[in-house]
UniProtKB/TrEMBL annotation:
Domain N-acetyltransferase: 3-93
Superkingdom of origin: Bacteria
Name of protein: N-acetyltransferase domain-containing protein
PROSITE patterns, per database record: GNAT
Pfam families named in the record: Acetyltransf_1
Matching InterPro entries: Acyl_CoA_acyltransferase, GNAT_dom
Amino acid sequence: MLIKYSKTFQKIAMGLLNSMSIENDLQVSKETIRKYEERDNYHLYFWKEKEKIIGLTGIKIRDPVLIVHHIAINPSFRNEGISHAMIAKAQHL
């Protein structure tokens, strides 16, 4: 299930972003999260299963187009189709 990012989960978001090879710098992750917090058409969502946040996607909405900027999955849950599920759900927001 997709849930909207809130500052309460900022550390989890930073951890997931840091797991990406292009976002493996703490300062870069902070800047990325700030972009999602400040820009109206940028949105950050978590993927939650059984009360556990296991993924994150960052999108930009430019009607009618949805642009995926970030996808990060907890390494323990990779190769299970979660990124495809996140994008499918995000298309219907």
